[in-house]
Amino acid sequence: MELHLNETEQEFVRAVDRVVRGYLDTPRKDGISVPVHNGWSESLDRALREAGFYDAARESEFGAVCPVLLIEQVARSPLTAEVGASALVAPLACDTTIAGPIAICRAQNLGQPIRYLSVAKTLLILSDEDLLALDVDPSMINANKGVYAYPFGAFAAAPDLSSARRVGDAARAVIYWQIAIAAEGAALMQAALDYTVDYVKNRRQFNRPIGSFQAVKHRLSASATLVRGAVWLARRAAWSGAAQDAAMAALHVQQSIPEVTYDCHQFNGAMGMTLECPLHFWTHRLKALQGELGGAAFQARQLALARWQPCAPAPASASPPQTRLSA
Amino acid sequence: MEFAWTQEQVAYRQRLAELVRRELPRDWWENYAHDGPYPPRFMQFARRFAKVLASEKLIVRHWPEAYGGMDADAWDHIIISEEMWSEGEPRSSLYMGANWAGPAIMKYGTEEQKLQHLQDIANGEKLWCQGFSEPESGSDLASLRTRATRQEDGSYILNGRKIWTSYAHGADIMFMLARVDGSGRAGVTCFLVPVRSPNLTLRTIPAMQSAYDFHECSFDDVHLPESARLGEEGKGWEIVRYVLHHERVGLARYEYAARTLEHAVAVLKARGEFDSEVVQAQAATCLAMIEAARLLAYAVVDARVHDLPPSAETSVARFAMIQSDRAVGNFVTSFLPDALTEPGDGRLRAHYKTAITSGIAAGAAEIQLNLISSGYLELPKEA
Questions:
Q1: Is the pLDDT assigned to residue B250 strictly greater than 80?
Q2: What integer is the mean pLDDT of A109-122?
C-alpha cells in the first residue's frame, strides 16, 4: 500500500499542470464572466492531445492511474476538453487506436443528446456484449444547446450502424467509462467546492464572513468528506481495473453530486445562480455526469452484481435468524 | 500509487483472523449483542486473550523494538485494528494502551513511566480507560473542572468527576486529564491514575448499548505521586491532540460495518430476500460509503508511514466512518428488522447497538466537522 504519488506520477501531474495552467481563467469581458452554454475548448483539447497525455494508459510505466490524474487536473479548468473516453476508455478497452475527440453512449441512448457528440470524430457504442466504433459525420449531428456545459449533440436521423466496427468488449468499456465518470465527477466537485470555500471566506454578511457560521461550515465539511472519498475511490478503481471498484466509484460520485452541487450553489447565493459567476462551469457538468451511463441506479445494480451475485445461492454459513416477526 | 497489500501483510491478516476464530467463544456475538464488550466476563476474557496475543508478540508490533515492539509500520497497526474491530474488539480496552496511551508515554513520559507502563502494555498485563469527559465538559473538553492540587512534596490531590468512561470497572489504569491551574486549554495536565486508587469511586450508568459501558468516576481527595503526571504541567492539551489523532482512525469501524453488511446480505440471500433491486441498491450504497471511509483512513495511515504531521484529514476519515456505520445500521433496521429482536441475530444486534454510539465516541461527529472546517477547509473562526 502506497498512496502517495510515485515520482513518475508526480512528474506526469506537473507536466499536465503546465498545460492546464493556461486555461484556468473563465471567459471574461469587462471583468465579468461571459455567459456561455458550453465550456468546450478546442484549444485545450488539442494542447492535451498534442502533448501526448492521452497515450499514457498505453505505457506500462503510467498505467490507468495517470489518466485519472490527467482527468483530475483538467477538471480544474472551467473549460472542457474530452479526456475520459480518449485517455481512459479507448486505450484500455479498444483493440485499436480510436480517433478523438470521442463520444460514448449505450445503444439504447442513440436517439438522445450525447455528451461530446457535436465535436466528436468517433462515437463508441455499447451494444450488447460488443463495443462498436462509428465514425461521426458532422453533417448528421445537431449541436444541442443544453444546460450541461458540455458540447452535447444528437443525430439528426437514426445513424446507420452497418458501418460501425467492433473494437472491443462492452463490459470492459463499462468499467473504464465508470472510472472516467468517477474521476471527472470527483474532480469537478472538488473544483466547485474550492470555489465555494473561497467565496464564503470572503463574502461578509452580519459583519462577518458567511464561512464563519457553523451552519455553513458543517455542510461544506460534509461535502469535503464526500469529495475526498470520491477521489480515492476513483484512483483505486483505476489502479485495479476491477468491475466492482469501478461501479463503486461511479456510484459514490453520482450519489454525492446532488448534495455537493446543491450546497455549493446554496452558499454562493443568488450570485451563484447567475452565468456571470463561474460556478456553473463545474456544476452544469456535474449535473450531466449525475445521469451518465444510467446514473446511480445502474451503478448500484452493477456493484451488487459484481459483489454479491444476487442470483447465486447463499453460502451455507449464512444461517437466518432464529425468529422472524412474520413467522 | 499502489493499493495492494504485500504478501507479508496478507499472511499477517490471515494469522490474526485464524487466531480470533480459534479463541473467540462460540456464543460471542449472542453475548455481545446483549451487553456489548463491557460486562465483567468480557473483560476477563480480554485478559486471557491478551495473554495469547502477547505470547505471539501481537499486541504492539508497530512499536519500536526498544519498547517491546517489532518496528512494524502503521499499516501493520491498521491491519490488527481491522481484524479485531470487525470481530467486536475482543482485546477490550487493551487497544487503548497499544494504540495511543503507550505511544503518548513514549513521546511525553519519563524513563520511569516508560519502564512502568510500556512493558505491561506489550505483555497484555494492564487494561486502560480514558478519563476525559466530565458532567459539564463533554465536547467542550477544555472547560474541564477536575482539579489536581499540587502539594509541597510535589504530589497531587485530585478532586472532581469524570463521566461516560468506557471500560472503567474492568480497567487498571486511567489516562486522565485534570486542571492544575489556569483556564481553558492552559493548565490542563495529563495523569496516569490507578483505577483502584483509594477515594476513587465508580458508578455504572446503564445505557442503550450496554448496562456496563458508561461510568461516572468520582475523585474525592485522590492522592497521586508526582510520577503519575505525564508530561509537564499545562501540556495536557498537546498530549490530548496527539492521543485523539491516533484514536480516531485507530478504531477501524469501517471494517466492522463492512463485515456486518456482508453478514446482512448473506442472511437476506439465505432467506431469498436479496432479489429486490431496492435492497441491492441500498446494500451497494452502504458498501461504497464504507470503502470511501476505508480509503480515507488509509490516506491517514499512509501519511503516518511517511512521517507527515497529524492533519485534519483524520477528521475527514472519522466523519466518513460515522456516516458509513450509520448507513449499515439503517440498512439492517430497514430490511432485517426481526433480526434485531431477541434472540435474533447476534452480530446484527451487536452492530445495531454500537452504531448509535458511532457519532459520539472518540469525539462527536459535529466536532469532526468543526475540525474539518478549521484544519482542512481553513474557514474563518466564528466571531
A1: no
A2: 96
Residue of A278, A293, A228 lying closest to A256 (CA atoms) = A228
- Local confidence band at A321 (pLDDT 50, 70, 90 cut-offs): very low
Q: Could you count the other beta carbons within 10 Å of the beta carbon of residue A259? A: 14
Q: What is the pLDDT of residues B161-190, one digit of tens each?
A: 999 999 999 999 999 999 998 888 888 999
CB contact (8 A) between residue B288 and residue A255: yes
Residue A327 has a pLDDT of: 29
ipTM of the complex: 0.93
| Chain B environment of A216 (Cβ under 8 Å) | 379
Task: Report yes or no: B320 and B312 within 8 Å, Cβ to Cβ.
Answer: no
- Residue B108 sits at the vertex; the CA angle it makes with B102 and B114, to the nearest 5 degrees, is 50
Name the CA radius of gyration of chain B, rounded.
21
Contact B380, A211 (CB under 8 A): yes
A221–chain B Cβ distance below 8 A for any pair: yes
Sign of CA dihedral A29, A33, A38, A41: positive
Is the pLDDT at A320 greater than 70, yes or no? no
User: Which of B269, B283, B372 has the CB atom closest to A314's CB atom?
Assistant: B269
Chain B residues within 8 A of A301 when measuring between CB atoms: 277, 280-281, 284
